[in-house]
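Readers outside the structure-tokenisation community will struggle with the description of the input data as it stands. What matters is that the chain and its backbone geometry are given together, residue for residue. For illustration, here is how one protein appears when written out as sequence plus structure tokens:

…
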Amino acid sequence: MNKVLRGLARAVSLLAAVAVAAVIILYPRLVAEDSASVPHGFLVVLLMGMSAAWVHGFGFVPENRILRVLFSPIIAWPVMIIGTWGVFLR
């Protein structure tokens, strides 16, 4: 992948992670009205995807091949999409 596409992917990852963090921190009622209605499983999936997007967005590239794949947009973006669907759209 060339440098421009890599930079664009990192920017998308960072912006997506910032957006998810901002929504959850600044407006938690969007996730759930009370603590009993929180979709915990999907929220964990969303936060895991967000964490991977932070790592990728800041440009950290692990030496370990498995971690490199886990912190790539190939994993982070679909995990965030599934988590977003489960938390906000389901």
Summary: The CA atoms of residues 49 and 78 lie 8 Å apart. The first helix runs from residue 3 to 26. The radius of gyration is 14 Å. Helices lie at 3-26, 40-57, 65-70, 73-89.
